[in-house]
Amino acid sequence: MNDFAQIRQRFPILKQTENGQPLVYLDSGATSQKPQEVIDAITRYYTLENANVHRGVYGLSERATEAYEGAREKVRRFMNAVSTKEVVFVRGTTEAINLVAATWGRANMNPGDEVIITEMEHHSNIVPWQLLRDELGIRLTVLRINQKGEICLNALESLLSERTKLLSITHMSNALGTINPVKEMTALAHKVGAKVLIDGAQAVPHMKVDVQDIGCDFYAFSAHKMYGPTGIGVLYGKESLLEAMPPYQGGGDMIYSVTFERTEYNVLPYKFEAGTPHIAGGIGLGAAVDFMESIGQDKIAEYENQLLQYATEKLKAIDGLRIIGEAENKGGVISFIVEGAHPHDMATLMDQDGIAVRASHHCAMPVMQHFDVPATVRASFGVYNNFDDIDCLVAAVVEARDMLL
Ligand SMILES: Cc1ncc(COP(=O)(O)O)c(CN[C@@H]2CONC2=O)c1O
């Protein structure tokens, strides 16, 4: 049994059947499945370590705090951040981006200042900037994509100006699979003095991310996409920026002292972590980091690329199927349509064969508009998928197509 076949055995949920067929889970882009060690870490916390963190002066609370803050250090090392002060726990990528818009955005942007995003963004990296535009009168500029679903660095350079205060971009598209050249994009933005936020929700599960190497100012991701629990994610921010930003929410734990006249805020990262945190989620995230590092992100990326190449070759051979998003550099996501068959009908029929794929606009409606499709069928891979899964996917696509046409 090869390594990845053994890894698959660590996911209990994959042992079940769906409609009498083995479950073929190909929707990791929406949320990944969880290995036993992540499930066990969360169970262990509630079984043996549950207490509120940071303020208890008794052993149980100290052990809960050690487990929770130990997870923060794991994330720091995982992203190669300089300090745990730069690792803010949030609910997920969406909250991370909203936090930056609400704090750094409000404190640093004035009417006429510009945010640049790309045409392939998820709605969580579009709507927060629209809200800020409508509140502050800033400009929101879109970097268009080509017919392969790629951005053009020269076009970005032409858009950047002294007016640009933030470049906010996805590292990897959830709808197209496109991997953006974020390091080069960051360098171009910094040349005009703009800050850079990277939406890493789809990238972190699939590849090694080194925030110091990229040079970005903010980086956001969600635990539930990289084998961890829902409800916990990370905002990385350069310490100097986080230090200068006002708090996001007010309450307990984010304070040092409170009088009715004024409040002195807590140090980083706690200034941004008001209220009782998702302690079990943080510990589960730490276990997910351990899981990914036990395999090796480069090994994950290489394996998933083999799956992607195989799936692309097999799907392209199906009459009437069009792949949406054919970037030279892609991660483990493949979107497609079958002419004459609505994606929702395709996915519904494929479910009858035990195939779990997403049929949607994937919260990337501008991408659908660009390719003039209402939605796509999307298969997205995790470390537990294999080539048999892809053979099952292809057979189900053909069967659904023949039933619908
Ligand atoms: C690129 C990208 N950015 C942000 C988000 C938002 O993440 P949270 O929901 O964890 O805050 C997602 C979610 N991906 C969606 C969710 O379902 N299917 C998808 O592709 C995403 O793919």
TrEMBL record:
<dbReference type="InterPro" id="IPR000192">
    <property type="entry name" value="Aminotrans_V_dom"/>
</dbReference>
<keyword id="KW-0663">Pyridoxal phosphate</keyword>
<feature type="domain" description="Aminotransferase class V">
    <location>
        <begin position="24"/>
        <end position="393"/>
    </location>
</feature>
<dbReference type="GO" id="GO:0031071">
    <property type="term" value="F:cysteine desulfurase activity"/>
</dbReference>
<dbReference type="InterPro" id="IPR010970">
    <property type="entry name" value="Cys_dSase_SufS"/>
</dbReference>
<dbReference type="InterPro" id="IPR016454">
    <property type="entry name" value="Cysteine_dSase"/>
</dbReference>
<dbReference type="InterPro" id="IPR015421">
    <property type="entry name" value="PyrdxlP-dep_Trfase_major"/>
</dbReference>
<keyword id="KW-0808">Transferase</keyword>
<dbReference type="InterPro" id="IPR015424">
    <property type="entry name" value="PyrdxlP-dep_Trfase"/>
</dbReference>
<comment type="similarity">
    <text>Belongs to the class-V pyridoxal-phosphate-dependent aminotransferase family. Csd subfamily.</text>
</comment>
<dbReference type="GO" id="GO:0006534">
    <property type="term" value="P:cysteine metabolic process"/>
</dbReference>
<dbReference type="InterPro" id="IPR015422">
    <property type="entry name" value="PyrdxlP-dep_Trfase_small"/>
</dbReference>
<comment type="function">
    <text>Catalyzes the removal of elemental sulfur and selenium atoms from L-cysteine, L-cystine, L-selenocysteine, and L-selenocystine to produce L-alanine.</text>
</comment>
<dbReference type="InterPro" id="IPR020578">
    <property type="entry name" value="Aminotrans_V_PyrdxlP_BS"/>
</dbReference>
<protein>
    <recommendedName>
        <fullName>Cysteine desulfurase</fullName>
        <ecNumber>2.8.1.7</ecNumber>
    </recommendedName>
</protein>
<dbReference type="GO" id="GO:0030170">
    <property type="term" value="F:pyridoxal phosphate binding"/>
</dbReference>
<dbReference type="Pfam" id="PF00266">
    <property type="entry name" value="Aminotran_5"/>
</dbReference>
